C-alpha cells in the first residue's frame, strides 16, 4: 500500500514540478555561492561574538534577518505585527556553594560541591527535591530495555564515558529528576569540568512544564563506590558499558536529596524571527510549510554555553552551526519571493534562538505558534549545512514520513545540483533529538532535518566563515527550494508512517 503512494506522489510531483520549473528556476537562480559567502561573513563575523542567547549580538542578527524579510516583502509573523517573537528568560547567579547533594540509605553522606560533585549542565529545579536511585548499565547502542516507570522522577546514575550522550538521549525524554554521571577521571580532567566556579546562568521559565533538561551532575567514582556496593548495584556496571541491552537497576534503599538555590539577577528575553509568504490557492494557503534554522550559537567562554578559548581566539563564531542554516533560510525566502509564481500553500521562514541552550526558541514557538500548528504540513530544518563532502547531504528523520521519498525524487529530478540525500550517518549521536525540528515533530508535524554533519570544528573557535563551502551550500539551498515548492504545491499533505508517529508524537522512546 505505502510504497504505491510514494510512487504516486513522485510521479505527480515531477511532471507538475517540471511544468512549473521555468518560473521556479528564476527563484532558485537567486541562490548563489557569492550571496551565501557574503551573508555567512555577516552573521558569523567576530563582531557577532558567537551570538549567545541572550546577547546584544543575537539581537543584532535578528534585526538583520528581519530587515531582509522586510526587504523581500514577507508578511511579519512575530508579535503584534512585527517579525520578532520574543520569549522570556531569567539570568541567575549560580553559586556552587548553594548546591548540596545528600544521600539517605545504607551509606548516608553529604557530597560536597567541587570536591565530590559538580552541577555540569541542565536546569535543576530551584529548592529541595528528592528521588530514588537508579543505575543504568549496558551498551549505548542497545535498545532501552526499560520504560518510564523505571526512570521518571528518579536520580539516574550513568558512567561518564564514551557513548554517554547516546544513553542520555534515551533517558532524558523519560523525565528523570536528575542525571548523575559517575566520573572515573584523574584530578586534571575533573578540574576542567564546568560547575567549579560561581557562574551566571540563563534559565528559561517557559520550561517549568517539565521540558527543561533536568540537572546533570558529575560525581567522582570514588565517592560512589561504597554506596553502590552497599546498595547492591553490579560493581563493574559503571566502568564499562559492555554489549548488553540498556537496563535500569533500581537502588531501592538509596534516596538522593538535592538542594539548589540560585539568585535571580535579571528578567530578559530572546528573539525568534518569523516571516510569511502567503500562498495563492484559496484553500491550501491556509496550510503552511516551515523552513527553520537557529541563528544563535555558544558565544564566548563568558556566555557559559561551553565555548573554550584557544590561544588568543575566544569567539565561537558558529559559521556552520548554524550560520549556514540561517543563511539558507534567508536565501530561500529571497528565492521564493523572486520566483514568478507563488506556491499554493503559504510558507513560513523562521530563524530561532536558544537552540544551543536547549531548543528554547523553537519550543516556545511550538507552544505559542503564530500560525496554527495543526495547519503546518512540514518543517524543513537546516542545521550545519556548509561543510564536508561536496555531494552528500544527510536527511535525518527521512524514514518517519513520506517526505523522505519526496526529497529523493527532487534530487533525481535535479541532477544539476549533484546532491545525494543519505540517511543518518551518525546514529550514535542522537541527532534527531538535537535540533529544532524535534519540537515540531513531537507536536505531530512531519519533518526533515538537513545536515552535512559533524566535523572537528564543531563548537570550537575554529568553526569560522572561511571553512564554509558556499558553492555546496548554494546547491543544497536550491534543492530545499525545489523540495519546498513540491510540498507546497502537492495537494496531499505529507504523511507520517504510523509506527514513527506513535513513537515520536505518542511520547514513546526510540
Ligand atoms: Zn546547531
Brief rundown of the structure:
The chain is 30% helix and 24% strand.
Q: Kindly report the name of the CATH homologous superfamily of the largest domain.
A: Zn peptidases
Bound molecules: zinc ion
What's the architecture of the largest domain in CATH terms?
Answer: 3-Layer(aba) Sandwich
Mean pLDDT: 87
Assess the beta-strand content as a share of residues: 15-25%
Overall tally of domains: 2
The CATH C-level name of the largest domain is: Alpha Beta
Supply the number of helical segments. 13
Structural class: alpha/beta
Rg: 23 Å
- C-alpha end-to-end distance: 25 Å
* Quantity of strands, as a count: 18
Describe the protein's architecture and organization.
The chain is α/β, with parallel strands linked by helices and 510 residues long. Helices cover 30% and strands 24% of the residues. The chain is built from 13 helices and 18 strands. Strands 1, 2, 9, 12, 13, 14, 15, 16, 17 and 18 form a ten-stranded mixed β-sheet that branches. It has an eight-stranded mixed β-sheet with strand order 4-3-11-6-7-8-10-5, with helices on both faces. Helix 1 (2-28) packs across helix 7, helix 2 crosses helix 12 and helix 10 packs across helix 12. The chain is globular, with a radius of gyration of 23 Å. The model is unreliable at 4-21 (pLDDT under 50). Residues 294, 321-322, 355, 383-384, 435 line the site of zinc ion (ZN).
